[in-house]
């Protein structure tokens, strides 16, 4: 389960009823569309808070439809009735959630924000990013998710709020903690913070990172739009490799791939300083309509272009990008299930990238303490075994109770988001 608030771009993005107590005003965050280096045009885009972290109450008053971790069974005897009885409210982005725009084209997300109701934990191409305040166990994430452009309003009549209020979220983990799915409450079978259903779609993790570790990861699915799952299709537990989506993905983490001096404090990519992150999607014929064959990564820091690190293991060909061959060799050496390849790999991922929503978040991990990103995972395996060590962090450092108490002032800043033709979005000074 992720403790986060998801933010999607309202002009790209993609509860039912709409609350009337708080005015919804989206923070402005312009992005740039580029055709050549130095030739970029700003678009008047803004961000919207995911509906899952908003106040949900009965349409006739202030009574909560969801309180703490439980549904109001009077207002929500079943999913359809709940969607009709309950409204999601406008958000106070700064005071309640710690979401601010310190300058034009920049967005700051605080990790822990104190407010009148207690506290809020978390908040959910090229881009500039500053992760210098993100300790072990915290993830500042930027990713694409194959949500509906309108938040699901057209497909699901029970959804009256739409993208303006951040509805329609999905990702490759098929999360079951989303409160409203397909215009209905996910209240049936709700237990331990999750309901009977999950919400699945493909996901491209552009950037998952903190001060110590980073990874970028494509996650294809067998479906081509946001899809509600149930049972085996959700891929939970022992059915992980039977579900709609590739939950593992095919990750490139420099530390995990054998270069332990590439990313971190004072290293080749120095995480004490802001850095420009460049992700390139390369097709087999060099056109926008070709088949995706490679996902490349570069960094720009202190005026220098830094190519991604190379793999450093016998059994994996020297490479610094994600390809089908890299994924097959990595999965074989690490003794991982190549569900990525089974679901179509790069070819399917390329098709799914044609309609996605950009998501920005900061979160901690209540399932496995972010060990999969920045420590040893699984924690009971030998870290000298290829693929187990993913970063230098102590496995216990990412426990949510520990990290929330020790680093309530943590934050991440995203800025200067650009997209366009390869080579058009960045240059060294």
Automatic annotation (TrEMBL):
<feature type="signal peptide">
    <location>
        <begin position="1"/>
        <end position="15"/>
    </location>
</feature>
<dbReference type="GO" id="GO:0016162">
    <property type="term" value="F:cellulose 1,4-beta-cellobiosidase activity"/>
</dbReference>
<dbReference type="InterPro" id="IPR037019">
    <property type="entry name" value="Glyco_hydro_7_sf"/>
</dbReference>
<dbReference type="InterPro" id="IPR001722">
    <property type="entry name" value="Glyco_hydro_7"/>
</dbReference>
<keyword id="KW-0378">Hydrolase</keyword>
<dbReference type="GO" id="GO:0030245">
    <property type="term" value="P:cellulose catabolic process"/>
</dbReference>
<keyword id="KW-0119">Carbohydrate metabolism</keyword>
<keyword id="KW-0732">Signal</keyword>
<protein>
    <recommendedName>
        <fullName>Glucanase</fullName>
        <ecNumber>3.2.1.-</ecNumber>
    </recommendedName>
</protein>
<dbReference type="Pfam" id="PF00840">
    <property type="entry name" value="Glyco_hydro_7"/>
</dbReference>
<dbReference type="InterPro" id="IPR013320">
    <property type="entry name" value="ConA-like_dom_sf"/>
</dbReference>
<keyword id="KW-0326">Glycosidase</keyword>
<comment type="similarity">
    <text>Belongs to the glycosyl hydrolase 7 (cellulase C) family.</text>
</comment>
<keyword id="KW-0136">Cellulose degradation</keyword>
<keyword id="KW-0624">Polysaccharide degradation</keyword>
């Amino acid at each position: 389960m992720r403790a986060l608030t998801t933010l999607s771009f309202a002009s790209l993005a993609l509860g039912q009823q709409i609350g009337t107590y708080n005015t919804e005003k989206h923070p402005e965050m312009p992005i740039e569309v580029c055709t050549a280096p130095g030739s970029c045009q700003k678009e008047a885009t803004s961000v919207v808070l995911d509906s899952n972290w908003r106040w949900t109450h009965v349409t006739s008053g202030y009574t909560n439809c969801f309180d703490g971790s439980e549904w109001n069974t009077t207002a929500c005897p079943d999913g359809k009735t709940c969607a009709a009885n309950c409204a999601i409210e406008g958000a106070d982005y700064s005071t309640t959630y710690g979401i601010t725009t310190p300058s034009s084209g920049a967005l700051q997300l605080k990790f822990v924000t104190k407010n009148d109701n207690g506290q809020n934990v978390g908040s959910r191409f090229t881009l500039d990013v500053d992760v210098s305040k993100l300790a072990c166990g915290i993830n500042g994430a930027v990713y694409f998710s194959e949500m509906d452009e309108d938040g699901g309003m057209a497909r699901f009549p029970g959804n009256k709020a739409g993208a303006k209020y951040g509805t329609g979220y999905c990702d490759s983990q098929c999360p079951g903690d989303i409160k409203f799915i397909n215009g209905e409450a996910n209240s049936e079978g709700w237990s331990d913070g999750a309901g009977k259903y999950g919400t699945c779609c493909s996901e491209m993790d552009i950037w998952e990172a903190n001060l110590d570790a980073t990874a970028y990861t494509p996650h294809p699915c067998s479906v081509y739009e946001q899809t509600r799952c149930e049972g085996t299709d959700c891929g939970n537990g022992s059915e992980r490799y039977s579900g709609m989506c590739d939950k593992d993905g095919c990750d490139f983490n420099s530390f995990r791939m054998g270069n332990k001096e590439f990313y971190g404090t004072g290293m080749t990519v120095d995480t004490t300083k802001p850095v420009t992150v460049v992700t390139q999607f390369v097709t087999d014929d060099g056109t926008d309509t070709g088949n995706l064959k490679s996902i490349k990564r570069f960094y720009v820091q202190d005026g220098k272009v830094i190519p991604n690190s190379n793999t450093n293991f016998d059994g994996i060909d020297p490479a610094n990008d994600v390809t089908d061959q890299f994924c097959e060799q990595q999965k074989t050496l690490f003794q991982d299930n190549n569900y990525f390849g089974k679901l179509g790999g790069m070819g399917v991922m390329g098709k799914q990238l044609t309609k996605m929503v950009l998501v920005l978040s900061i979160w901690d991990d209540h399932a496995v303490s972010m060990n999969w990103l920045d420590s040893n995972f699984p924690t009971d395996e030998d870290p000298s075994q290829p693929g187990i060590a993913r970063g230098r962090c102590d496995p216990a450092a990412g426990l949510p109770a520990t990290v929330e108490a020790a680093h309530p002032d943590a934050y991440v800043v995203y800025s200067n988001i650009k997209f366009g033709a390869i080579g058009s979005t960045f240059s060294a000074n």
